[in-house]
Every structure is written in structure tokens, then in C-alpha cells.
Amino acid sequence: MAKSVAQSATLASLDQKLAMAKRCSHEGVVAGAKAAIVATIATAIPTLASVRMLPWARANLNHTAQALIISTAAGAAYFIVADKTVLATARKNSFKHAPNMEARI
């Protein structure tokens, strides 16, 4: 009987941790997507404008180069913001559920 109660408590704890991890990763994905959209717009406007106005850019940046510049900025923004968001959310939740650190010292 005691073994069954201990197993159900462990399963409930694991389910709670899994739900928390899913929520943290979902928040990271949403924040990363928002950052990628902003980075795409912030990079596309000057890139496309420079290709129209600057002779060097017009001569050297073809459509593939322009797409690479814009997509690299968007990808970098996505991964940086998503990673920071997941870590911040996990850190916040770990401190929220941790026992009082002052009581240990």
C-alpha cells in the first residue's frame, strides 16, 4: 500500500515537472517568434533600401544575399530570445518551488 502511494506521488511530481517544462518551452517559442518577426522587419527595411540607393550594394548584393542577411538576423533573434526566455522561466519556477534558502544557512 505504501509503495502505491509513493509511486503515485512520484508520478504526480513528474507530471507537474513535465507540464512546467512544456509551458517554459512554449513561452520561449512564442517570445522567439515575436523577436524573429521584429528582426525580419528591422533588417529587411535597411537591406532593401540600401540595395536601391547604394551603387555598391546594388552591384554586389543579389537576391540570395539579401535573403541570407534577413533570414540570418531573424534566426539569430529567434534562438537567442527563445533560449533566454526558457532559461529565465525555468529559473523563476525553480526559485518559486525551492525551499527557503535562508533556513538552510
Automatic annotation (TrEMBL):
Transmembrane segments: 31-51, 63-81
Pfam families: ENOD93
Alphabetically ordered keywords of this record: Membrane, Transmembrane, Transmembrane helix
The protein's name in its UniProt record: Early nodulin-93
Organism: Hibiscus syriacus (Rose of Sharon)
Taxonomic lineage of the native organism: Eukaryota, Viridiplantae, Streptophyta, Embryophyta, Tracheophyta
